[in-house]
Amino acid sequence: ASILVLHGPNLNLLGRREPDQYGAATLAEIDQALMDQAAEAGHHLQHLQSNAEYELIERIHGAPAEGIDFILFNPAAFTHTSVALRDALLAVRIPFIEVHLSNVHRRETFRHHSYFSDIAEGVICGLGATGYRLALAAALEKLDQAQE
Ligand code: DQA
Fold first, then answer.
1. CB of 50 closer than 6 angstroms to any ligand 1 atom
2. For the site Transition state stabilizer, which positions are given (predicted)?
């Protein structure tokens, strides 16, 4: 299967950005670990980080034609603002898991609402980079089940 990992704004700064909140791992390390994990299971994984809502929307629009079966998405600050990204995911109807490194529910109230959680297959937050690994494991399990 083909999996797409999308990372929203400021996640390119991981490792340097508020490490007590987001951990020490860089985005490159997280993406590499996910590619290895997918490859070991015989699947293909691509990733994109963008600080631009437009780019993320365009990539989601292109996902069906690319044969993407599942998306892992950390919308970052767009989590709390973006009806446009929500609508893009609804339009392509590709299942996705929402991932956050930090526990957004322990933070400012404006982070408690997500435009994605009610349309996601599942949501993981507060587990740092481990959350991405668990999300990928869950996605692969769902894809295997769908194939049986
Ligand atoms: C985040 C949480 C968001 O509230 C924040 O804007 C981010 C990262 C996380 O991974 O914990 O940029 O999505």
1. no
2. 17
Q: pLDDT tens for residues 89-125? A: 999 999 999 999 999 999 999 999 999 999 999 999 9
The closest residue, in CA terms, to atom 2 on ligand 1 is: 76
What CATH number did the domain enclosing 109 receive?
Answer: 3.40.50.9100
Does residue 18 fall inside a structural domain? yes
Closest ligand 1 atom to residue 76 Cα is: 13
Residue 136 lies in a domain: no
The one catalytic residue in 22, 43, 115, 132 is 22
Asked if 8 and 75 touch (Cβ cutoff 8 Å), the reply is: yes
Structural domain boundaries enclosing 78: 2-131
Buried b (16+ CB within 10 A) or exposed e, 116-136: beeebeebbbebbbebbbebb
The total number of structural domains that make up the chain: 1
ipTM metric = 0.99
Mutate to test the pocket of ligand 1, among 79, 110, 130 (most ligand atoms within 8 A of CB): 79
Query: What does pTM read for this prediction?
Result: 0.97
